[in-house]
Amino acid sequence: MTPGRRSSTFTRLLRHGFTDPSAAERLLDGPELAAVRDDPVLLEALGATADPDLALHGLVRLLEAQDGPTAHRELLDTLIAAKPLRDRLLGVLGASAALTDHLARHPSDWHALVTYEPRDLHPGVEEFERGLAEATDPVSLRVAYRRCLLSIAARDVCGTTDVAETAAELADLATATLRTALAIAKTHAPEDAAACRLAVIAMGKCGGHELNYVSDVDVIFVAEAAEGTTEAKALTAATRLASHLMRICSETTVEGSIWPVDANLRPEGRNGPLVRTLSSHLVYYQRWAKTWEFQALLKARPVAGDAELGQAYVDALEPLVWKAAERENFVPDVQKMRRRVVENIPASEIERELKLGPGGLRDVEFAVQLLQLVHGRTDQALRSGTTLDALQALAAGGYVGREDAARLDEAYRFLRSMEHRIQLYRLRRTHLVPVAEEDQRRLGRSLGLRTDPVAELIREWKRHTGVVRRLHEKLFYRPLLDAVAQLAPGEARLSPEAARERLVALGYADPAAALRHLEALASGVTRKAAIQRTLLPVLLGWFADSADPDAGLLNFRKVSDALGKTPWYLRLLRDEGAAAENLARVLSAGRLAPDLLMRAPEAVALLGDGDGGGLDPRGRAHLEQEILAAVGRAENAEQGVTAARGVRRRELFRTAAADIVGSYGTETNPAEADQGALVDRVGAAVSDLTAATLAGTLRAVVRDGWGDTLPTRFAIIGMGRFGGHELGYGSDADVVFVHEPQDGVDEHEAATAANKVVAEMRRLLQLPSSDPPLLIDADLRPEGKSGPLVRTLKSYEAYYRRWSLVWESQALLRAEPVAGDDELGRRFTELIDPLRYPRRGLPEDAVREIRRLKARMESERLPRGADPKLHTKLGPGGLSDVEWTVQLYQLRHGWEQPGLRTTRTRQALAAAREAGLLSAEEAEILDEAWVLATRVRNAVMLVRGRAGDTFPTEPRELAAVGRYLGYGAGHAGDMLDAYRRTARRARAVVEELFYGNGG
Q1: pTM as predicted
Q2: Given this model, what pLDDT does residue 648 score?
Q3: Fewer CB near the last or first residue (10 Å), C or N of the chain?
Q4: Strands in 761-865 per DSSP E
Q5: By three-state DSSP, how is residue 197 classified?
Q6: Each residue of 704-722: pLDDT tens digit?
Q7: How far apart are the first and last CA of the chain?
Q8: In a 10 Å sphere around its CB, with 0-12 CB exposed, 13-18 middle and 19+ buried, how is residue 567 labelled?
Q9: What pLDDT does residue 481 have?
Q10: Given pLDDT bands bounded at 50, 70 and 90, which one contains residue 882?
Q11: What separation in angstroms does the CA of 389 have from each of 145, 445, 474, 492, 954?
């Protein structure tokens, strides 16, 4: 061959899509193709395949395998003369290395692609049964199965059938294969066949008439005794037949395997019997089945064995399927199942997962099935096991927007086509997009992407997964808006009853009110209504993920009514990714945060993720600076304190919102795993805010009554949770007040001024207002309620020297200056340090007194009727148990262990562990219990809007507390069990360390 000709052929091969023209040229010049190598028809046909190099190599292998010159010549002649065969055969050879291997082993099977009659274009079960009729054992069944598969693949790659038709043909071939395998099993065991009636029910994609090239074939077996046979004997016989059928299809032979037959969707899964009677199936589904099992039954279809029994199975279970949506927590259960699937995908594969990944095939299937189960109860047109048929029916009935349905249909078809072609190459079960460029090139070309196959494939794949990702959840919510909005002529809409059904399924207790809110929010032609129509489908999903969707929607309407005409509000929700989801979480998590927000709706701006917003708490110095500046601008004390309380309300909202978002998690950020960090963040933020508010109030009162200088130095000492930086949302401010007359000022005048300051601060912080009051509690002062409200430093010193009791030393462990004169606060701390950290520790009589006080408190202070095991403060293993144990260590060892000299419970507990005073396990148990009890108290305040020390009894409130603590719908009982378990473990440690010898 001349160099010029070689160059010309080389160029032609490149132009026709060959990636290795040199190897292709050698094959074309070889003896197998010598007679046709210059035929332009062959080169054109090879260039039209997904992988011309693969197709050419496969053709040479097939020709080499022909049995003699006559067969060789017949194949070549037919190939050149008959375009249908040429397209089919070369199309398969260029798309499937596995089917090429089959043809090389069975070189006459190419004849299966020659016929081109109308009945060959769309064969059904009967045609496939004829194709498998001669199979008498597993090996011959595999050969016949591959021959039938060859014809399906040929129609697929040539475009004779679309992806839905191909999937239906694959399901029909599976049906014929199961029937043939059962016949072979019966032939091998005629006595078993005579003893029972056995039906095979297809599930999953086979049942739905939408099978892949390589997939597990999901089945359920049901059997009844033949006349004259006992049920036990019949079930044993049926089990042997079913097991043999599974082995015939699944086992690897010299011809490979067909596909695994998977019976794990049966009642009790792999732990349950392989075969049951119809009545046994029915009892299980009536009593024990989970939501997902009814979802799976959507696709149940009798395919083999006793047809009458198979139909009886479907008829008996179908009514139960369409009642599944009435089950409690139906929608959350289905959505949780979907999330669990995604969570189980290895991180290295999730972006390549066609089936299970975000925006993948399963998202479409789950969304469609969810809608079918909700609305198929009353509309039988929706009861199809085939995803695309069901999607079309949903659109026709107005249950899904037509445009959304069309886009999902297109995306689903493209992704299924990708899945088919990926599996067809090696006939291996995979849903992963290949990473090798040559594989992506072949895949792209097989889908008709020829200009730049790899780039076009990736672009189209990402476009379609993006469509699914955006639409699959909105699919459920968007038609609810169409039900109350004006639609274009001819557009179908949800009926009021269908809208009600869907809202009830989502967890709305008052669907009529919800529809009124939606109508108010989404109707009209204003820009506000248009933006809200776009936002609401997503917001409805987030509301439904909460324990009280009704409250979420109502609160959103209130905020929108207040802020709807404010340009920045709608822009914030539309453009700032986090804002809309954060708002949905906050509005549906309970009463406190929405109440705080409604008093000043502009605080919505804090929920954004841009500059100036954000939910990170502000430090004490920043807060104090802002509050003092506001007080300085005020005309009088009342105005100044009003301003301070306004800042406090806004910052309480910021803290609560951050806590809710951190506890719930968002689509982009999972829930905070470190529960202790959440508790510490809230405690520090609320304590800092309270300190700054008191500092501002003190400044306002002093300035209004005395100008710049009070006749006495004045300091506020935080006590209890306030001093420990552990305040909750509903906590009072526990304090003591200390003063010291200015030089030359009479003690009586100084005391009078100090008492006036305290009285005015308390009055102003409790004035009726839209802002929450801040209650000041000074009961931990010397002599309690009987003692003077304010003392001088000398008075404190005299009292503590002569009269101090051990409980007062214990209370002083949490004392920390929070506002007022810094120097006076420091001197007060120096005064009390010897009391709270006594040198050489506590004497034994003092230890006994503390234990006696604790025991008395446990028996006397628990509210009547409260369940002690669920009381977070005074119950066994609650806050009091942990704190008294830690404080006993501080009193006994603080003098020698500097780490114990802290007002914070968790820090002191960690210091005791580091000092070896208790074991790491004991410290962990106590810390876990304290954190959990604190979280519960915070949750109760967030949910109910008022403080509480025990779990709510109202079911929705209890569910909301559970959601905050990370428990899904329907798991409130698990939450209570976990609390009891945690508290019980902590109490056992307290018994040892506090009441035993550990302290």
Answers
A1: 0.74
A2: 96
A3: N
A4: 776-777, 790-792, 816-820
A5: strand
A6: 999 878 999 999 999 999 9
A7: 99
A8: exposed
A9: 65
A10: very high
A11: 27, 28, 20, 17, 43
3-state secondary structure 471-534: HCCHHHHHHHHHCCCCCCCCCCCCCHHHHHHHHHHCCCCCHHHHHHHHHHHHCCCCHHHHHHHH
CB atoms near residue 380 (< 10 Å): 9
Phi/psi at 772 (nearest 5 deg)?
-65, 140
What is the C-alpha separation between 455 and 476, in angstroms, rounded?
33
Taking the C-alpha atoms of residue 589 and residue 551, their distance in angstroms, rounded to an integer, is 9
SS3 of 397-409: CCCCCHHHHHHHH
Query: What amino acid is encoded at 11 in this protein?
Result: T
Is residue 491 over pLDDT 80? Answer: no
Tokens matching residue 427: 């006939």
Instruction: Please say whether the beta carbons of 461 and 447 come within 8 A.
Output: no
Sign of the C-alpha dihedral, residues 359, 365, 371, 373?
negative
Find the helix or strand (DSSP H, E) in which 945 lies: none
Sign of the torsion angle spanned by Cα atoms 882, 888, 889, 890: positive
How far, in whole angstroms, is CA 857 from its chain's centroid?
43
Among the listed residues 745, 748, 722, the one whose alpha carbon sits nearest the alpha carbon of residue 735: 722
Residue where the block lists tokens 């409250």: 551
Residue showing tokens 């669990």: 340
At 19-64, the pLDDT tens digits run: 999 999 999 999 999 888 878 899 999 999 999 999 999 999 999 9
Determine the average pLDDT of the residues in 484-496.
62
Residue of higher predicted confidence among 492 and 418: 418
Torsion sign across C-alpha atoms 746, 747, 750, 756: negative
* Chain position carrying tokens 């989970």: 290
What's at 815, amino acid-wise? A
Q: What phi and psi values does residue 901 have, to the nearest 5 degrees?
A: -85, 70
